[in-house]
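User: Sequence in, structure out. Go.
Assistant: Echoing your sequence, followed by the structure tokens.
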Amino acid sequence: MSTNIKPIQNQAHLERQARIDLAACHRIAARFELHEAIDNHMTLLVPGCTDRFYLAPFGMHWSEIRANDFCEVDLTGRLVAGKGPIEPTALYIHAPVHRLAPRARCVLHTHMPFTTALAMLEQPALRMAVQSGVMFHEDIAFVDYNGLAYDQSEGERLAQALGNKSVLLMRNHGVLVIGNTVPNAFEQLYYLERAAQAQILAMSTGKPLHDIPDDVVRATVRQFSEGAEVGGVDRADLHFAALKRMLDRTEPDYAT
């Protein structure tokens, strides 16, 4: 009997931790003003599954989302567990990306201001002009705006445009970031916005940007890879754990 109980207990623990991390991601994003009203979406595949994901019921502000609030939705849009309305663009953006991009266990879609401002430019490329931007060297895909995502084909178009990249800059719209964990995806989201902010601020001076030489960019990319862990722990995990401690001090209900 005990041999059957342990896997069940482990699965329940993994699902609980996944919900807590996704709730924390919403709260932190709201605190850093990476959200837009009750719109935008953050989803995470249920641990051990490739055909079900957690999604917040539409109508909740990211600043109030708790671990128990998430619905479980399958890739066809069927509500598997939980309650609350499923917003169509959340389904039609996230389900195809989860289905077509194997690395997309966590999918974050936001209209965060500086990255969205970058997406509005005729030439929206993130310039290699600041250290945080180098993190995204050759890892950003672009897609033209095509209206609201109100059918499966639009989500498939976005997933195809993403390809093997981690970031999809959605022109005239916002951004989509994927990761294999919540901490990994949030790390991408956070530093992308910081890099875009620095670029937009620098561009606002009207002076030319000074790009980092290509050989230095490539060397720095290698350094980022070599320094991905500190003390045997991934930097993204360390960053996200620190942010969760911040929430634990000020709004611990996120984990309920």
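User: And one key feature?
Assistant: Strands lie at 41-45, 52-55, 71-74, 79-81, 106-110, 140-143, 167-170, 174-179, 229-230, 233-234.
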